Amino acid sequence: MHTNGMARKKRQGVDIRFPQILKGMKRGPAVIIPKDIGMVISYAGIGKKSKVVEAGAGSAFATIVLGNIVKSVVSYERNEEFCELAKKNVEKAGLKNVKIKKGDLLEKGIREKEVDLVLLDMPGANEAVGHAHKALVKDGYLVGFLPNMEQAKDFYLACEKEKFSEVFMLESIVRDYEVRVYGVRPKHVGLTHTAYLVFARK
């Protein structure tokens, strides 16, 4: 397991800190950053025995972070370019318990069963709620990473319709601080909204 240090990247003048395992990884589409993936990990309660399915691998940043702590990760990606990028980043991270699959989860569903977490970071995520429910173990979690409130609402209502035992929606807003001898205060520029997280427990 990789634990040492933090890698930093700039986004519109804002420092974003990533775990060292992501240092030097190539970025394609937008990625799930630590403040959000940390909430997914902690609220879903996943660990070394957990099996995870993800849809929307993208650059595989979240995939790699998850693969570093769980038993196995299968990540679906329908975009061929992103799929190849994800595979290269996973290979660079040295993870043998992660598999990137080229395919559209909405068309073929989730072949994996008895999984502990399904993480969806994809357009039309609300349409995949039924597939996720079938794939999960009892008390397993479905989590939607949803940039817009309308998407989050549709996903939330789809989870309720599918009869998940618990559904809740959160947002993580992090403030970075300027620490100086003569004063401590929040930085003028910060990272606020990235996405809404909808959690649904089977």
Radius of gyration: 17 Å
From the structure provided, what is the oligomeric state, counting identical versus distinct chains?
single chain
Q: Assign the CATH topology.
A: Rossmann fold
- Cross-sheet strand order for the largest sheet: 5-4-3-6-7-11-8
The CATH superfamily is known as: Vaccinia Virus protein VP39
Number of strands: 11
Basic shape: globular
Order of secondary-structure elements:
EEHEHEHEHEHEHEEEE
The CATH architecture term is 3-Layer(aba) Sandwich
Low-confidence regions: none
Residues in helix, %: 25-40%
SS-based class:
alpha/beta
* Main β-sheet description: 7 strands, mixed
Rounded mean pLDDT is 91
CATH class: Alpha Beta
Distance between the first and last residues' Cα: 29 Å
Q: Could you explain how this protein is built, in words?
A:
This protein has helices spanning 34-44, 61-67, 80-93, 105-108, 129-135, 149-161; strands at residues 6-11, 14-19, 51-55, 72-77, 98-102, 115-120, 136-146, 166-170, 177-180, 183-186, 196-201. The protein has 202 residues and is of the alpha/beta class. The chain has a single domain, classed as Rossmann fold (3-Layer(aba) Sandwich). Strands 5-4-3-6-7-11-8 form a 7-stranded mixed beta sheet, sandwiched between helices. The two termini are 29 Å apart. The mean pLDDT is 91.
